[in-house]
Design a protein that fits this description.
Largest sheet of chain A: none
Strand content of chain B: under 5%
Largest sheet of chain B: none
Chains: A mainly alpha (46), B mainly alpha (226), C mainly alpha (222)
Structural class of chain B: mainly alpha
Oligomer: heterotrimer
Order of helices and strands of chain A: H
Distance between the termini of chain A: 67 Å
Strand content of chain A: under 5%
Shape of chain A: rod-shaped
Radius of gyration of chain A: 20 Å
Radius of gyration of chain B: 20 Å
Number of strands of chain A: 0
Number of helices of chain A: 1
Structural class of chain A: mainly alpha
Distance between the termini of chain B: 33 Å
Chain lengths: 46, 226, 222
């Protein structure tokens, strides 16, 4: 059972770290897209 | 390449990546035989080693992109170098966390200063230093150039670190990989994990590069908007 | 060649006029020795086992200080811009600075070493030539990559603070071989056993000296 706990923890770590990295990229993309749209509109208006 | 072709390629990449992941998980956790002495614990090994190999690939990409930037001074190489360094650090973070989780029940210690483990740690430190340097230089062109130089130094340093530790500090038994290679029955799982992580690397690099071009686009617009 | 000599002499002259960096390096190195005496509780340890590591840590810290100072001074008084107008290869600038840094470090090391002999109660007459060789090669390896990274660090927003962080991971191979070689010498090993570390230290110097020589110009501000 102990073995399984170690196996589980290790894999949890692997996939959580990867998921966090993907989420970070995703969040960055969304923020930048909003910012770019905002700037585009602002430039169009002027 | 036009936009639609790129989008299609992305979809293909997604599909292949998903299939490879599922196959790798199946092979590693179900299909591969239980190891004789370590039992199921050995299954950590597949993704652990795959992460290390993929991380090394990422740092290799960083080096190549750094050389390309010094030679061509095209910012796309800098974006790739940054993406590769970050992704490599993420993969090596996985290696460094899963390593002790595996070592504790098998070797009864959390950490040994074995060449592999030490090299992983030093690589992590080197490329975190790389990311730190980037953070503290404002001018994009100078940042790209200086980062490229440091990336080259770091990558050339890696084998030297490896041999230094190996010659002086190799007092620990070599991990199972060394002696006679992997059991043939475990090979499919091993290579599937490596392949799926390498595909994941390609995917992550693409996403991270795209993010970086968006950032540059935003900075360009900010200058336009004043 | 004459330009290399000029850069080298200039750095030496600046330093010898004030001796700021050198004094700080010496003092800091000795402080490190004292700190390590208590950190290691040296009363309990075999001095010949502890000395190599402690010495090289002191050397590395002192060297970091010295390299930082060498570039910070120039950043402050705008001397680097002047030097860059010199009608010579920037690589020559690197070599001159690297050699000057090496000389300073060796000078500091000599004093720190003597202090460590006293603190560790060591007698080393016969080993001196070999120790000298290892110190020289280790220091060359250190400054070969240290000069390049100091130029990088001084160009960042963090300035000097960044140098140890980026230098120490890179310098690990030098540190490992220099410490092991010093330990071998103090342990009474013959020249045969020193071949490997000495060769590696020399190789490190050549490899990173070449890389830095080629890339130094890209690191300097245009």
């Amino acid at each position: 059972m102990n073995t399984m706990a170690y196996l589980f923890t290790a894999n949890a770590v692997i996939w959580i770290v990867l998921a966090l990295f993907l989420l970070r990229i995703h969040a960055g993309e969304r923020k930048l897209r909003e910012e770019i749209d905002r700037l585009r509109r602002q430039i169009d208006r002027t | 390449m036009n936009k639609r072709t790129t989008a299609r390629l992305d979809m293909v990449l997604w599909g292949v990546l998903g299939l490879a992941m599922i196959a790798a998980l199946y092979l590693a956790f179900v299909d591969a035989p239980r190891e004789r002495t370590m039992g199921d614990l050995q299954r950590i090994f597949y993704f652990h080693v795959a992460a290390a190999i993929t991380g090394m690939t990422a740092f290799g990409v960083n080096f190549a992109a750094g050389v390309a930037y010094v030679a061509r001074r095209d910012r796309k190489w800098d974006r790739l170098a940054l993406a590769a360094a970050e992704t490599g650090v993420v993969f090596f973070a996985i290696v460094l966390i899963t390593g002790p989780i595996w070592a504790k029940p098998v070797w009864m210690v959390w950490w040994t200063w074995s060449p592999r483990l030490t090299l992983s740690l030093v690589l992590c430190l080197l490329y975190i230093a790389y990311l730190l340097i980037r953070r503290y230089i404002e001018d994009p062109d100078r940042r790209a150039m200086i980062a490229a130089v440091f990336g080259i130094v770091a990558f050339v340093d890696a084998p030297l670190v490896w041999f230094s530790i190996r010659w002086w500090r190799d007092i620990h038994p070599a991990p199972m990989l060394e002696s006679g290679g992997i059991d043939p029955a475990m090979r499919p799982a091993f290579w599937a994990c490596v392949a799926s992580f390498e595909l994941l690397l390609v995917y992550l690099l693409r996403r991270r590069c795209a993010l970086e071009s968006m950032r540059e686009e935003m900075e360009r617009l900010e200058r336009l908007a004043g | 060649m004459t330009r290399l000599w000029a850069v080298f002499r200039k750095d030496l002259a600046i330093e010898l006029r004030t001796k700021d960096a050198l004094n700080t390096m010496l003092f800091f190195g000795v402080v490190v020795l004292v700190v390590f005496h208590f950190a290691l509780r040296s009363g309990d340890v075999d001095p010949r086992a502890a000395a190599p590591g402690v010495l090289w840590v002191a050397f590395a810290f002192a060297g970091t200080l010295g390299l930082n100072r060498m570039f910070a001074v120039e950043k402050e008084n705008g001397c680097l811009e002047g030097l860059m107008m010199m009608p010579a290869d920037r690589g020559v600038l690197y070599l001159g600075k690297m050699l000057a840094g090496t000389v300073f470090m060796l000078a500091a090391e000599a004093v720190i070493f003597v202090a460590s002999l006293v603190f560790f109660n060591l007698t080393v007459w016969g080993e001196l030539p070999w120790l000298g060789l290892v110190f020289l090669l280790g220091t060359l390896g250190f400054t070969a990559v240290g000069t390049l990274l100091a130029a990088i660090a001084v160009n960042t927003r963090m300035r000097e603070v960044l140098l140890p962080v980026i230098l120490f991971p890179v310098i690990l191979p030098v540190l490992i071989h220099a410490v092991e070689a010093t330990a071998l010498i103090l342990g009474g090993a013959g020249p045969g056993e020193l071949k490997l570390p000495v060769a590696v230290l020399a190789a490190f110097t050549v490899v990173f000296g070449t890389i830095a020589f080629l890339l130094f110009e890209h690191v300097l501000e245009d």
